[in-house]
Amino acid sequence: MVRYGNRWGLVQVGVYNMGFVQASMHTWEMLRRVELEPIIDRDLTGSFCFFCGMAGGAICTLVAGTWTFVVHRSYATEVSIYAFLIGYFMCRIGMAWQQSCVAAYYVAYSESPENPRLDPTILFRIQEFQRRGV
Fold first, then answer.
1. Distance CA 17, CA 55 (A)
2. For residues 37 and 128, is the Cβ–Cβ distance under 8 A?
3. Per-residue model confidence as pLDDT tens digits over 86-116
4. What is the pLDDT of residue 1?
5. Where are the domains of the chain?
6. Rounded to whole angstroms, how far apart are CA atoms 22 and 14?
7. Are the C-beta atoms of residues 30 and 110 closer than 8 Å to each other?
8. Whole-angstrom Cα distance, residue 93 to residue 106?
9. Taking a C-beta distance cutoff of 8 angstroms, is the pair 40, 18 a contact?
10. Which H/E stretch holds residue 93?
11. Which of 46, 99, 100, 134 is the S-S candidate for 129 at Cβ 3.0 to 4.6 Å?
12. 79 Cα distance to chain centroid
């Protein structure tokens, strides 16, 4: 499934105007060729974005639920649920920018690992995983 549909393929869809499946397959092969799989497997960007969305939803629930409980007690549950959903999705949309930047950086590295504009962080991580035998 990852081979035929992945978020890293979206970078090539936008840059090279490829179809989604073709771009996903091409991108996944590039990532495997430069041995980025261990780094991608340990990438916490998606989890971080999810937890930021949950925190945003929780804050919105606290604020809206408290205010509604004081003003219109009978609507507090519904408003709290709506506030959570709105807060979660607003934060998640805001965090998608960071997640797409990380995906674009991985794709840029896999297209040209020797590019002097890219810092050596990914190369250091790959070498570290190779030393550990991961």
1. 36
2. no
3. 999 999 999 999 998 998 899 999 998 888 8
4. 65
5. 1-33, 41-132
6. 13
7. yes
8. 21
9. no
10. helix 76-111
11. 134
12. 29
**pLDDT at position 9:** 84
What pTM was computed for the model?
A: 0.79
H/E element holding 15?
Answer: helix 9-16
What's the one-letter identity of residue 123?
L
As a whole number of angstroms, the distance between CA 19 and CA 57 comes to 34
User: What residues have CB less than 8 Å from 119, skipping those under 6 apart?
Assistant: none
Q: Dig out the tokens for 130 from the structure.
A: 């190779």
- Helix (H) or strand (E) run with residue 29 in it: helix 20-33
How many Å apart are CA 23 and CA 14, to the nearest integer?
Answer: 10
Report residue 24 as tokens: 């996903």
Low-confidence ranges of the chain (pLDDT < 70): 1-2, 134
With tokens 């003003």, the residue in question is 71
Identify residue 118 by its one-letter amino acid code: L
Amino acid at 116: P
Q: Name every residue whose Cβ is closer than 8 Å to that of residue 81 and which is 6 or more positions away in sequence.
A: 61
Give the separation between CA 86 and CA 49, rounded to whole angstroms.
15
